[in-house]
Every structure is written in structure tokens, then in C-alpha cells.
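[job 4471] stage=fold_predict status=RUNNING
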Amino acid sequence: MRSFSHFACIDWSGARTERPHGIAVAVIGPEGPPALISPDPRWSREDVLAWLLRLAEDRKDMLIGFDLSMALPFLDHDAYFPEWNESPDDAKALWRQIDGLCRDDPHLNVTSFLDHRQASRHFRHGKGIVGDLFTGGTGRLREVERYQRATGQANSASCFNLVGAAQVGKSSLTGMRLLHQLNGAIPVWPFDPVPDSGPVIVEIYTTVAALAAGQPKGRSKVRDRAGLKQALAKLDTPIPARLARYDDHSTDALITAAWMKREAANPALWSPPAMTSEIAQKEGWTFGVV
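[job 4471] inference complete, writing C-alpha cells
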């Protein structure tokens, strides 16, 4: 497996505002602690896109983890959107469709997609507002999410559920717009081959990193300096300078960047046995789930 000199974790957000509080970007290099990149006043999704394009231009050997789902479930019904004749055939076509339908939505939002007559049928939108093709319960899951649950590695939520604090649908859909707008400037594993040099993007789940850093199941969030120091020590990583605040977005990003640095050379993470070529192209996979 190729090596990387730098690592980054992006804790993402699907909030409709231009500069959501939930976006955090942490980077770590060959030496020293991880550090937050903190623009003034806060990151926008367009800022993150511009930063990624600069990394691509610089050919930075950086592994970049995004805390979001990079596709929707497909294999369970042989379609992302059953009963819609324009349902895409693979993940990149899905990104293109979402971004196209939302071309007039500011800040990489996905309002137009979720309001679309056919797309909206598949989502739980709010209390009492449920599409007629939403499957009920937790909602449809990708194969990697089923596998995470079965093996106890994580407890991922369905992207078709847009309700509650644990929902990940809006952040994932906005992330798919960003991935399409990158236009291949940075390869995205496992949809693209991993190049010999330059940056690579992977999907990560910060809970996987938190558990590896010694956080207990069900209580993986770190919200103080002592907890961050303990988690990073478990990953053999020094703690950064004092943060302005210890919110879980920032600490998730810092811990996961350190975990990626420690684990990225493990070849098993790049070839998970349960990931078939069809899963890789249609649903993707979470880096670190084996």
C-alpha cells in the first residue's frame, strides 16, 4: 500500500446555513500533534471545496477522510430510488443527479433534491412528514452499514432518515454535491483507483476512530481537554495547543486525523473482504471497517 505524508479529517455538516458550526478540519503531518485549520469566521462548504482543489493542484500526498456517507443504499432494491425511471446506476451518476437538481441551491444545499416529486418519496423529512416509499424503521442501509451493525464496529444511521440528532442524510447529500464538483481532481476510494501520489479522499466514521482511541461504546464524544489528551495518547499522538472550545466536531476531527495516520498503512483497510466490486462502485465503503 502506498504511503501518505499528511492526513486530514473533515467533520461535515448538512445545515442549510452558509457557514455551519458543524464543519471542522484537522490535519496532521509526519511529526507533532494534529491541528485544526480554522478560517475566520468559520468554514463554508465552498471553502472546503476550494481547499481541496488547492491540495489537488499541489499534488499533496494527503489522505483525507470525510465523515459522511458517499452513496445511498442500492443493493437491497437494485436501485437507489425504486419506482423512479431516472434512478442513477452508480454512485458517480448519483452525485451528478443530486448536484444537477440542486444547481440553484446556495451553499451546496440540497433543498431542491429533497423537494423533488420523485426523490422526496424515499425520505423521512420530519415529524409526520414521511415519503410513501420510505421503508420505515431505521430506513434502508448500505451493505457497509449492515456489516458495521452485524460486526459491532459501528451503528450507522440510514441516509434516508432526515430526522433527529443522529441523522446523517443531509450532510451526506451535500457531501455528494461537493464530490461531484471536484470533477475527479482528487480520487475518491473505493470508486477510483488509488494513485501512486497526490491526495486521496475516503469516507470515514469518526466513531470507529473514537473506539480505537479508547472511548466507550455509546459515549464516544470528547468535549474537554483531558478527554482529548487521553484519546490521543491511546493513538501515540501528542495533544495540540489549547483549543478555543472543545466541541465534539473539533475533537472528532483531531482524533480521527491521528487515527488515520496510525492506520492508513494497514493493507486490510484498503481491501475489506466484504466489499465486492459492485458494492465499491454503487455504495462505497467506510475506511476502517473490516
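[job 4471] summary: Residues 144 and 150 are 10 Å apart (CA to CA).
[job 4471] exit 0
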